[in-house]
Structure formats: C-alpha cells, structure tokens
Amino acid sequence: MLAMFSSLAPPLLFLATGLASAKGVRSQDWNTLNRTVGGRLQVGVPLAQPCFSRPTPYNVAQCLDVQSNYADHVYRSDNFGAYEIAQWETCQTTGDDCLLDWTNTSNPAAFLPPSQCKQGSIPSYYIDVTGPNDVIAAYNFANQYQVPLVIKNTGHDYIGRSSAPGSLALWTHNLDKLVLNNSFVPEGCSVPPTTAVTAGAGQQFNNIFGFAVANNVTIVSGADPGVGLSGGWVMGGGHSALSPALGLGVDRVLQFKIVTPDGQYRTVNKCQNQDLFFALRGGGGGTFGVVLESTHLASPPVTLQVVLGLSTFTPANATKLIQGLAASAVQMAADGWGGYITPSSGNAVWANPLLDSTAAQESAAGVVEAFAAVGGTTVFMTMDSYTDFFNAFIASNTDPVGRPQVVASRLIPDTSFGNDSLFEDMANAMLGADFGQILAVTPYAFKDYDRNGTSINPAFRTAVWHSIMGYYWNYNATSTQRVNAYKQLEQQWAPVRAQTPGAAVYQNEADVYEPDYTNAFWGSDNYNKLLSIKRKYDPHHLLDCWHCVSLTAAWPGSSPDWNSLNQTVSGRLQAGVPFSQPCFSRLGGGAPNTPDPAQCSAIQANYADHVFRSDHFGAYEITQWETCQTTGDECLLDWTNTSNPKAFQPPAQCRQGSVPNYYIDVTGPNDVIAAFSFSKKNSVPLVVKNTGHDYIGRSAAPGSLALWVRNNLMIRLPLTELLLFRNDRRTTLTSLFICFGTGYLMNHTVGPEPQLRPKRVPTRDEADDSHYRREQAGQQFEAIYSFAGANNVTVVAGADPGVGISGGWAMGGGHSGLSPSLGLGVDRVLEFKIVTPDGQYRTANKCQNTDLFFALRGGGGGTFGVVLESTHIASPQVTIQAVLGLYNATQENSIKLIKALAKSAVQLAGDGWGGYITPALASAVWANPLLNSTAAQQSAAGVVEAFASVGGSTTFFTMDSYTEFFDTFIAPNTDSSGRPQVLASRLIPSNKFTDDTLIDAIANGVVNSDFGQILAVTPFAYKGFDPNGTSINPGWRTAVWHSLLSYYWNYDSTLSQRVGLYNKLEQQWAVVRQRTPGAAVYFNEADVYEPNYIDAYWGASNYAKLLSIKQKYDPNHLLDCWHCVGWKGAQDPRYKCYPNTTAGH
Predict the structure, then answer these.
(1) Where does the record place the region Disordered (predicted)?
(2) Distances from the Cα of 502 to the Cαs of 505, 511, 516, in angstroms?
(3) Which of 142, 171, 200 is the last residue of a domain?
C-alpha cells in the first residue's frame, strides 16, 4: 500500500492467541533450544523499551535513536520487536503495549512513569534464522512443548499473522542472499534457461530496486521499501504498479526453498512438490512452512511512460475525481497502466511499460479529462527504469508506519465500473476515514499466467482497482476507542461490500475481520485444495495464523463472527471450562485464576460420579479426553485422592487440553444449523458432545466448537396401552414406544459402556399427538428406568447412569443386559430426528430417509449429523429371572471361573441370558426375561457348576421388572469414571468357545489388567431383527461375549507412561485378536488404536454403504471423529493430542 503526497493521520489494535504460553516452558528447555541453534535464541524486546524506566532502566541514547526513526520502514524492519502496523506489538484486548506517541515521539506522557513497557503480542523469544536446521529445531520444540510459532520477516503485517503473545518466532530478516543468474533452470526441470534473481527471505525492496538497476533488469516488486520479496508479499499474491502489464509476484516466482512443518527442507517449483508450489503462490505466508529463499523472473529493462495527476483537495473534488477516473479505469488497466490514486491528497500517478509516449498520451486521455474536470493538471514523462519511477514517486511517499491502523479493502471487478453508486459510496468511505487509497495494481492486462498454477482468488485477475481505507489510533486509546475503530471500519465499508458480491480481497491488506474471508481471499475451490495441502505438510498444525489456510480457527472473543453466532443461538455460546478449574489458582502460562472453594469441594466430592460429570460440559467420564496426552496439558485432580493439593496447587496449572474452546447449549435444530454454517465458513472443527461417556475421544478436540445436546431433555409415552402405528399405509398394532430427547441418560453397570438417552416422537407414522405425554425434567437414565417401571413398560437400555439413549449408544449398536433376548438399541429404535451437516432437519425412519436410518442404526455417533431425539419400542413389562454368583476373587479363582463359564456361554446366550462377569467385584450377574423360574434354574446349571468349582455360591431371584434388576445389581456397581482409561475389546464369536488358548488369553487379559469385564450383551437369541436394516458389523449377531480389559493412569503420569499403557494394552490383547480373525468390535468401547477398525466395527460391505451416505449428507465433511465413517486421518490437527504408539499412528 502507498500513501501518495498526503499528510496522514493515525493507525490501530488487536490480540492474537496461541496454544500455550512460552512462559510455561522450563528455562533448561529454552537453554537446550538455544544451544541447538548456535546461541541465536533471543528475547523478544519491544522496540520502544529503551524509552521506558519500567520495568527496565531508561537508556537515553537508544531512546533517542528509536524516537528519531520511529516511522522509518527499514529501521523498523531491522528491529525484531518492531512492527510497521503497531497494534501487533500490543495486546489490544488488555491495552498492554510499549508504544510511543506517533504524533510526537518525544511526548513523555507515553513513556515516563506511571507508563510501563509491556510485552503485548511481541513473541517472547525468537530465533535469528540462518538456515534450515534452525527451523527444524523450532518445529521440534514447538511440537514437544506446544509453544505457538510465528514467522516474522519485516513486520509489514496488517492482520497480525507474525506476532502472538507467548510465542516463539522464526525471524528470517537476516537471510540476505541476493544473486542474479542469467541461465536459471528450476531444479529438476527440463526447460529453457531464463534470467532470474534469487533472494533470501530477508531481502527488501529498497535493496531489490538498486540491485535491478545495477544489473540492468526489471524485477516486479511492491511499493513499501521495507517489505521482503520472498515473504508474505509473494505468497499472498504480490502486487505492484507493474502488475497490470507484467503480472503479480505469484506469476513471476520460479522456485522456493522452504522448510515445511513436517521437518523437511524442500525445493518447490513446477517440476517438484507442485502442490506446494501452487499453495505458496497465493496461499499466504506463515502457513505452509518457512521460506528461506525464492527465485523470480528478471525481465529485460523497461522504459516507462508515466502520467502524474495533481489537483487541489476538497471532499467534493475528491469524489468527483474518483468518479471521473472510474470511467476510464477498465480501459487503463487493459492497456497495462498501474499506479496509485490518493484522494486525500488530490494526486495520482501511473506507469506503463507497454506503450510508447504517443500511445501513452492517447491511452490516458481519460485521466487528463478527469483531472481537468476538477481543475487539476496532468504531466506525462518517460523514465528509463521502474527503479527511477519508484525513487521519484513511491519511496518518498510510502504509507506511514509505527502507528496502530485498521484497514478494509476490496478488489473491484471490471463489471462494477458502470455502477455510479458504488464509487460514490467508495469515495464517502475513503474521505470519511483517516486514510484511503486506490491502487491500480491488478494483473488485468497480463494474460500469460498459469490458469491452474496459482492459489489466489481467480477474481483478482478480473479486478481493476484495489481500494482500501483505514483508521488510526494512538498509544493512549481506550479499549472502547479501539473497538469503535473496527466497528466504524465495518460500517463505512459495508456499502462497498454490498455492491460487489463475490469480489476478491487482497489478503495482505485486508480487514482483520473480513467476512467470508476464505472465499474473499482464495475462492472455495482453491481453499479446499489449500486445506488438503496444509494437512499434508503440516500434520500437527504447528503453523497457525489469523485468517490463514487453517485446520483450526482462531478464537478472539471480540470477533464479530463469534458474536454473531452467539446472537444467532440466543446467547447460548459458552466458553468450554475444564471441569476442575475452580480448584486451581493458575491457568496455562501461569495466568492467575481465582479458585472457588465451594465449587472445588463439590467437584472433589463428586469427581467419580457419572451423572455429576455428565451435567458439566467440561467433564468427560474418561478423563484423558479432557487433556492433551501428547503434551500433558490438563486440568485433572488426583482420582485416588481428590483432595491431594499437588494436583491443583502451584506450580500446577489448569490447561485447556482437549476440552473444546466453545460450545453451544443446543435447544433445537436452528442451533445446530447455525453451528454447521459457522464451521463451514470459518473452518472451525466441530464435535458433538452429549454426556461425555467416550472411550475414543470423539466428543473432544483442541480448538473446537462443540454442540452440547445434554440439556435436550424430553420424554413422551403414549397414554394408551397400545399405539396404532401407521407404517406404509398399513395400520398395525405394536408395542408402545417412547420418545426421548438427547439429554436423557441411561444407566450402565459394572462395565464400561455407552448407553441410551430419551428423545421425542415420530411424525409421519404416529397417531395423534394427544396420545403422548411430554416431560422435560433433567433426569438421567436411572430416571428412565423408573419411568419405565412406573408406566409398566420395558425399555432396552444400557448400564451406565451417565450415558444417553439417543446418542452414541444407540447409533453405535447399543447393548444391554436385555439384548440377548430383546435385541440391541439399533433393533429397537423406530425413528430419529436429526440435523444433517447439509443444514436440513430430517426425520429418519424405515419410510423416509431410509439410507440415513440405516446409517444411524450402527454407523456411529458424531458422524452423520446431530440427533435431537429418537423413538424406541417400549415392550410390555417383563418378569426377570436373575442369577447372582459370588466367589473369593483371587487371581487363580478368577481365571478358573472365566474358563468354566465359557463352557456354557453359548447355551446361556441361546436361552436369552444377558449379564456381566466382573472379577474386580468378585461376582457375576445375569438376567432373563424369557424363562420361568424352573426353566431358568435348569438353563443356568452351568453357571452354578462354574461358581461351585471355585468355592463360590449362586442365588436365583425372580424380579418384577428390569428396572428392579437394574436398581439392585447394576446402578450401585457401575464402573468408575473420572480417571484416564484405555481399553481394548472383542466380540467373541460363538464358534470360538472351544478354543482353550483363546479363552485362557481372555481370562488372563481380563483378570490381570486394571479393570476387565465380560459382558453377555450380544443379541444372540434375538431373531426379530431386520437383516439389512442396521449397519453394525453382522458379527454382532453371532457373538456371545463382549470381552474387554483396560488400564488407568493418574494426573501426574508422564508421556512415556501413557504411551506405555497403550502399548501394554496392545500386547495383552494380541492373542485374543489373533485367535478371532474377522471378529467384530463394539466401537463405543474399543481400543483407540483398533487395528483394521473398518472391518471390526462395520464390515467392508456396510462401510462402503456408510461412506456413500456420509458423502451425501455431509458433502463438506463438517463432522469428523477418530475412527468414524469417513475419518480424515490422524494428521488432522484435531488429533494432535493422540499419542504416537507402537499400535497407533
């Protein structure tokens, strides 16, 4: 951007946030990094610090130097702690800064006490980069310690991409290589040689222009002498007054040398790493790696025809001048003219390398006429080189630096130049601002570009003007004044945006809060390609910057996008706060937090309570999903003693871990639709969270937005004994059914297991709604069982009181102690109400959206949409025959008992028995709704014999309902929550129970782990299922036992200990897997690193169908979760907290 012949007023402010503060890293770790980079790790010191006496002593000589050069472009670029746009040295939200008064740098009010110099957003440390090894060391360090990285070259940055509080910066400013090659051939290419210049990342335009003259060549370069040729300028597009005739920077760059975040030093050109070459030519700086050098086409010297327009500024004259120049703008661009119009000065200048002097005067007749119309004059001249033009008109009139400044811009399409209203609005905006300018720098006349080779928005090529306006503020601006500058910018520029729908925006000089920035900067097609390339080269998402190509979004609380989302969902956008935060006095990076003793006591007392945890968004039952396992970032208590102060008192810090940054407390479909739209627009990862009963981590992700459906509480039941259920125009008499809201919970016993929640009612196939009763009480599944008992019905549901009936339990299969006789959850669900990622609220049942009904009955939660309610069969109440076995649980006895029980397991399952064998509780219990007491005792003779063989006892009971069985044997003995836990499981086929080696491996695995269990919950005796209607692995139907083992760790575990448990799990379960090839696995209770998970969870045939359905309803892949249908892979940054193990990644 260039400020032509104007005396300009003040600039602006903002805060970029990082993943973790540099303060959270130990000094010895920084020292190690310093040694690795040869002592070139430096502290980031604010430019103006020598002028302040707090916190460091005042330095007179250095202060005078800073004051006299405060607005000098090159001086600022030579100092790491300086940015040309000075709000990026500050924290705009808090006002922390170290600025001088840019209107009078000697003003003592800015720097004398009580003023203090504060770090603001200046990186805490930086590496003075000299080569690729420095960059690789920084990547390794950032990945290990989760320190945010930024890349800084010259500090010419309007968006704040090169600064961040608590970050580590890679400073490439001193890479000063500059070489001319008269016969350059890109490495690996077989093309004719050409003249080219290779420039290190630190080479700036003030040097480039002198070099071009000395070597008699033309290099297309920008207008700010402090900007670098090889940095963000070229990677963002790179405009110049020569661009209309000779192209943008991206059109002329031939090769890059770059270190990508995967640790590789790469040569990038049209013959190798072509995808990266596409990305670097328009995808933006600070995103795909650290460019160390680039090579650009050096054309023969050009003679320039120049036209200079001068006029007296008045607002009326300026408006008339803009409108007059707009009349010939398209023709001027087509003829190859490039230049700068500065309305506030009344002046403009253009250059043309294509025309001779006669043709130039003919071509620029519209300019002459426009200036004459406002009483101005025009002068034509011929110049020997672009450097002469730069020195005469640009170098001495660059836009001011050293002040906070906010800008908005637009690339005005050629089709808009007949719209007088647009240019009136543009003039009003510019003249009402502190600064406005029109840059004729688009590549309109340049046609020799690679149609598919650059990633800039294609609309850049059909635009004619790059129009820009901005506001300034000063060091003493209040937060309100800073925010108002942004708001004023938005209001003033809104009419220009409204009249140029779909227009491009130059990302290097854009509004910080540019709406729909992905389309404005790149266009949707390019952006999707760029995202794929980003995933490939930055698998751990080490590089992130504001409104860059990004797999996670930034989270500024002041962002209009977030505020708009919050308004859309009626204020129910909430911050995701880690469950135990009230116990901590320090947050990540050492930030203070005020503990809440009352809340902390409640958390400590209920830390292992399923339902209490499900009521808190920031809590997960399996607590490693509250953490980042790779870094140890967490906010956990000691689950063995929740009062242990070492877990939460200093130096312990509460860190966000994998708890989503924000969540929407969902009350209906519009909330979900708003979230899908927001995620698509802003590339924010989405997760769906219900109760937090999650062994795989599908409902958590660092830097994500969650949809919390926990409070969608509703239950309805027909008031008549039986319901007339219309199906395919036939009226049939069926069992009752209950409709549940997703917030309803179910109960699960002694074993880990996801279960059911209540939902609503069907629409098309239901009887009159007056037949239903609706309840909206926030009750868990124990209440569901009570509800079923009170209404004399039986609901098939699971064993954990903290699990929901309508969420992942049902969609993953949904087992129960009743499943052997009455089927799985997927066999009993009649209908779902769901918002699919394409933004539609749908009813899915066997009569409509039948493909989706198939997918939701086994395809898994968090994948095909957000289920808001489901309807399930409610059978008549059943009498339960139960058998309880007790014994002395020594290791030897437990192994012997499991082997003995295996002998009658297939027969028991065939007779309809379901239950739980739990060595840790020295017991086992089964239930059967099909047999009378006499038949039950005959059927369970094998159980009696097995317990007798280990000196145990068995007792038979008759119970009036499954609710009574649940309350007696399951609810008091649910598995523990509130601890990190890894498990592995297997659905053991009926034909494997004569394999003694297998049964021995199961017994040893279950007994010798921290917690193991065998669940007799498969639908072995149930034959009323639709053979093609559910998407679970068919192996479920012929399996007898769901066997699992698991290990725990605590808050103070190391990464190696955590990885060790994953690996131990793999080793312990290896024989079981080997002896059951092709067996199914219940993916709600599975190994995180389950090998061949697709076949294990669904089977190949079902998965192919599911993938097609996924693509249909989620075309933009807004929902992704670990080992789900359509999973994008571990390289996605949302999975960066999953540790690398011998079994995993």
Answers:
(1) 751-771
(2) 10, 16, 10
(3) 171
* DSSP H/E element including 917: strand 914-918
Looking at residue 1116, what DSSP letter applies? T
Q: Which domain holds residue 237?
A: 178-297
Strands 178-184 and 194-200, sheet pairing: antiparallel
List, for residues 1082-1116, the tens digit of each pLDDT value.
Answer: 999 999 999 999 999 999 999 999 999 999 999 99
pLDDT tens, position by position, 740-773: 555 433 322 222 222 222 222 223 233 222 222 2
Same domain, 275 and 209: yes
Amino acid at 388: D
HEC assignment per residue over 254-294: EEEEEECCCCCEEEECCCCCHHHHHHHCCCCCCCCCEEEEE
Beta strands in 61-186 (DSSP E): 125-128, 149-152, 168-171, 178-184
To the question of pTM greater than 0.70 for the whole model, the response is no
The answer to whether 453 and 278 have CB atoms below 8 angstroms apart is yes
* Cα four-point dihedral sign 603, 607, 609, 613: positive
Residues 277 and 420 in one domain: no
The answer to whether the Cα torsion of 185, 186, 188, 189 is positive or negative is negative
Element (H, E) at 438: strand 435-440
pLDDT at 890 over 70: yes
Contact yes or no for 745/803 (Cβ under 8 A): yes
State how far the Cα of 146 lies from the Cα of 633, in Å rounded to an integer.
Answer: 9
Burial class (CB in 10 A: 0-12, 13-18, 19+), 978: buried
Pair (263, 316) in one structural domain: no
Q: How many domains is the chain built from?
A: 5
Residues 395, 498: one domain?
Answer: yes
352 shares a domain with 400 = yes
- Looking at 691, 708, 725, the residue that finishes a domain is 708
Query: Peptide bond before 55: cis, by omega within 30 degrees of 0?
Result: yes
Cα 1124 from Cα 1097, distance rounded (Å): 9
How far is the CA of 687 from the CAs of 126, 447, 661, 898, 995, in angstroms? 35, 45, 11, 39, 41
Residue 1071 pLDDT: 97
Q: Cα–Cα distance between 806 and 870 in angstroms, integer?
A: 6
From residue 69, give the alpha-carbon distance in Å to each of 62, 64, 491. 11, 9, 34
Q: Which of 1077, 1050, 1021 is nearest to 908 (CA)?
A: 1021
Pair (890, 1004) in one structural domain: yes
CB atoms within 10 A of CB 276: 22
C-beta separation of 801 from 971 below 8 A: yes
Token output for 335: 């003829």
Residue 75 belongs to some domain of the structure = yes
Residue 728's pLDDT band (cuts 50, 70, 90):
very low
Cβ density class 508-532: b for 16+ within 10 Å, e for less: bbbbbbbeebbbbbbbeebbebbbe
pLDDT of residue 734: 30
From CA 355, how far away is CA 362, in angstroms rounded?
Answer: 10
Longest dimension (CA), the chain: 112
Task: Name residue 831's beta-bridge partners.
Answer: 871
Q: Report if residue 686 sits inside a domain.
A: yes
Q: Measure the CA–CA gap between 396 and 519, rounded to whole angstroms.
A: 35
Closest by CA position to 1091, among listed 1077, 1104, 1105, 1102: 1077
Q: What is the DSSP track for 294-355? A: EEEE-BPP--EEEEEEE----HHHHHHHHHHHHTTHHHHHHTT-EEEEETTTTEEEEEESS-
d(CA 174, CA 156) in angstroms, rounded, equals: 15
Residue 16: which residues within 8 A CB-CB, separation 6 or more? 88, 121, 160, 161, 163, 164, 165, 545, 546, 554, 556
CA atoms of 129 and 314, how far apart (whole Å): 49
In order of 755, 922, 932, 935, the CA distances from 956 in angstroms are 27, 17, 11, 12
